[in-house]
Amino acid sequence: MHAIRIHAFGGPSELAWDDIPPPEPGEGDMVVRVRAASVNPVDYKTRSGGYPAVKREQLPKVLGRDVAGVVERVGEAVTRFHTGDAVYAMLDREVGGYAEFVRIHEADAAKIPDGIDFVEAAAVPLAALTAWQGLFDHGHLKAGQKVLIHGGSGGVGHFAIQFAKNAGAWVATTVSDADAELVRKLGADKVIDYRNENFEDAVRDIDLVFDLIGGDIQDRSWTVLKRGGALISTLQKPDQDEAERRDVRATNYMAEPSGAQLAEIARLLETGKVTVVIDSVFPLQDVGKAHEHMENEHVHGKVVLQVATETAH
Ligand SMILES: NC(=O)c1ccc[n+]([C@@H]2O[C@H](COP(=O)([O-])OP(=O)(O)OC[C@H]3O[C@@H](n4cnc5c(N)ncnc54)[C@H](OP(=O)(O)O)[C@@H]3O)[C@@H](O)[C@H]2O)c1
Q1: What is the pLDDT along the chain (313 residues), one digit of tens a residue?
Q2: Which residue has a Cα nearest atom 2 of ligand 1?
Q3: Helix 155-166 to helix 259-270 angle, to the nearest 10 degrees?
Q4: Whose CA is nearest to atom 35 of ligand 1?
Q5: Is the Cβ atom of 212 under 6 angstroms away from ligand 1?
Q6: Is the CB of 269 under 6 A from ligand 1?
């Protein structure tokens, strides 16, 4: 099968179109024929050598953590899925989704809801699970609370706005001016143009800061939080001394695959309570252009790789 691998860390030219043997399913796994895969920042960070979990000794490696496709074969212990099912999943770190076939653990997959095509489905798993786990598993967000989402126009942020609104929270988000209208449509109550406004002047008494930017933005967030609030980051670990001084629970986390959570998210997609924003779609062969676009340009929502031409299911 064809797959996009890196043999060395570096720029987009390291993305090689390789011919490798297709995967075999283990007992509790399925082999899925991939129709679409999405690009996440972790992919270009891995490619460039900036993602510590992937070391040089693990190369060559197929990139990609998100897929949508059709079940081709199932292992003996698989009970919930059958050949021909349309499924989507966040993959574990051992396998890669920029490929014609991929092995998926049964527990990590969910059925793609009606009305959602493969491109849209592939855009969901890692970004939506990161938003879900950050807001609810780590942030313990409840109806009536106030959340500030830093970076609301990106892959994770656009899901986070919608999940938080759907849970009954009041949502503020920082974006650049070009994305203000988009995030208002997704349900943001307060939109802060981060290039021209200080968010510290725009909000206060926040129950949860969801930090998708890190660095200085994280450091400046303490002042908007109320005592007893939470600062949850997808990036660096917040300063624990500062957290204690301010009586704030503060942590970072890594998103994990979860078929059960993807099944809940599927219901929100199916009923139209959550929509997927697609920034752009590239054929798998143009993966280098997709990486360059995501790393260097302004992205709204998700960048997707089309692996097969058929996108409906
Ligand atoms: N720990 C985990 O498991 C995990 C999981 C997923 C993602 N992440 C990390 O979380 C971050 C976000 O991921 P993503 O997929 O949402 O990335 P993304 O799709 O690239 O989106 C990032 C967004 O941030 C915006 N932005 C940049 N600087 C900003 C600022 N100062 N204030 C507000 N918004 C700003 C960008 O908009 P403009 O173009 O307008 O600047 C862009 O829309 C990445 O660093 C990623 O590696 C971690």
Answers
A1: 999 999 999 999 999 999 999 999 999 999 999 999 999 999 999 999 999 999 999 999 999 999 999 999 999 999 999 999 999 999 999 999 999 999 999 999 999 999 999 999 999 999 999 999 999 999 999 999 999 999 999 999 999 999 999 999 999 999 999 999 999 999 999 999 999 999 999 999 999 999 999 999 999 999 999 999 999 999 999 999 999 999 999 999 999 999 999 999 999 999 999 999 999 999 999 999 999 999 999 899 999 999 977 667 7
A2: 254
A3: 70
A4: 151
A5: yes
A6: no
* Identity of residue 300: H
State the angle between helix axes of 125-132 and 259-270 in degrees (0 to 180), rounded to the nearest 10: 100
Q: Residue 44: phi, psi to the nearest 5? A: -75, -25
Nearest CA to ligand 1 atom 44: 41
221 lines ligand 1 (CB under 6 A): no
Residue nearest to atom 7 of ligand 1 (CA): 234
CB-based contacts of 122: which residues, under 8 Å, 6+ apart?
35, 36, 37, 38, 66, 67, 68, 88, 97, 304, 305
Name the residue with tokens 């064809």. 2
163 C-beta closer than 6 A to ligand 1:
no
What residue ranges define each of the domains in the chain, with the CATH number in brackets?
2-124+276-306 (3.90.180.10), 127-252 (3.40.50.720)
194's CB contacts (< 8 A; 6+ apart) are: 150, 174, 175, 176, 217
Task: Name residues whose C-beta falls within 8 Å of residue 57's C-beta, 6 or more positions apart in sequence.
Answer: none
How many A from CA of 152 to the centre of ligand 1? 8
**In this structure, which residue's CA is closest to atom 25 in ligand 1?**
151
Q: Please state the pTM of the whole predicted model.
A: 0.98
